[in-house]
């Protein structure tokens, strides 16, 4: 079931059965994790790379808000619960090998913990990483 949200795009909310079926197609690593690329749905801007376990993936697919697994804290975290910089799920894709996810999202505020719109705000330069 899709719920109408801002910007004329519905947030994706799947049934538990559909979410479990999608999760079954994912090849989680030996730690039970899969890398996730978050991309702005309308511009194609790559915002961040994070990790999900099966529980976070199913919560994301059924709830419409993106939930990740923090490897440093060893806990799930729903993006934006403390910062207000939420990610609403528009579409979820799994790659050909099943070992990487691409989430098309609607980002509110900064995606990066540094306050930058994207975590990818530096590029290779002669003196090392330099700001874009």
From TrEMBL:
Pathway: Amino-acid biosynthesis; L-histidine biosynthesis; L-histidine from 5-phospho-alpha-D-ribose 1-diphosphate: step 2/9; Amino-acid biosynthesis; L-histidine biosynthesis; L-histidine from 5-phospho-alpha-D-ribose 1-diphosphate: step 3/9. Residues 48-121 form the Phosphoribosyl-AMP cyclohydrolase domain. One of its GO terms (biological process) is L-histidine biosynthetic process. Its main location: cytoplasm. It catalyses: 1-(5-phospho-beta-D-ribosyl)-5'-AMP + H2O = 1-(5-phospho-beta-D-ribosyl)-5-[(5-phospho-beta-D-ribosylamino)methylideneamino]imidazole-4-carboxamide; 1-(5-phospho-beta-D-ribosyl)-ATP + H2O = 1-(5-phospho-beta-D-ribosyl)-5'-AMP + diphosphate + H(+). It is an enzyme of class 3 (hydrolase). It comes from the Bacteria. SUPFAM superfamilies: HisI-like. Keywords: Amino-acid biosynthesis, Cytoplasm, Histidine biosynthesis, Hydrolase, Magnesium, Metal-binding, Zinc. InterPro entries: PRA-CH, PRib_AMP_CycHydrolase_dom, PRib_AMP_CycHydrolase_sf. Zn(2+) binds at residues 96, 112, 119. One of its GO terms (molecular function) is zinc ion binding. Mg(2+) binds at residues 95, 97, 99. Its EC number is 3.5.4.19. It is found in: Cytoplasm. Pfam families: PRA-CH (PF01502). Binds 1 Mg(2+) ion per subunit. GO terms for cellular component: cytoplasm. Signal peptide: none annotated. Its cofactor is Mg(2+); Zn(2+). Homodimer. Catalyzes the hydrolysis of the adenine ring of phosphoribosyl-AMP. Belongs to the PRA-CH family. PANTHER family: HISTIDINE BIOSYNTHESIS BIFUNCTIONAL PROTEIN, HISTIDINE BIOSYNTHESIS BIFUNCTIONAL PROTEIN HIS7. This is Phosphoribosyl-AMP cyclohydrolase. It comes from Rhodovibrio salinarum. The gene is hisI.
């Amino acid at each position: 079931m899709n719920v109408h949200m801002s910007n004329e795009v519905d947030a994706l909310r799947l049934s538990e059965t559909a979410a479990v079926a999608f999760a079954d197609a994912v090849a989680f690593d030996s730690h039970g994790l899969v890398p996730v690329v978050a991309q702005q749905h309308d511009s194609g801007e790559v915002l961040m790379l994070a990790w999900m376990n099966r529980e976070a993936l199913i919560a994301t697919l059924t709830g419409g808000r993106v939930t990740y697994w923090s490897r440093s804290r060893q806990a799930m975290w729903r993006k934006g619960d403390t910062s207000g910089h939420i990610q609403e799920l528009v579409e979820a894709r799994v790659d050909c090998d099943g070992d990487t996810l691409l989430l098309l999202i609607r980002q509110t505020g900064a995606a990066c913990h540094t306050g930058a719109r994207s975590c990818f705000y530096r590029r290779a330069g002669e003196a090392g990483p330099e700001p874009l």
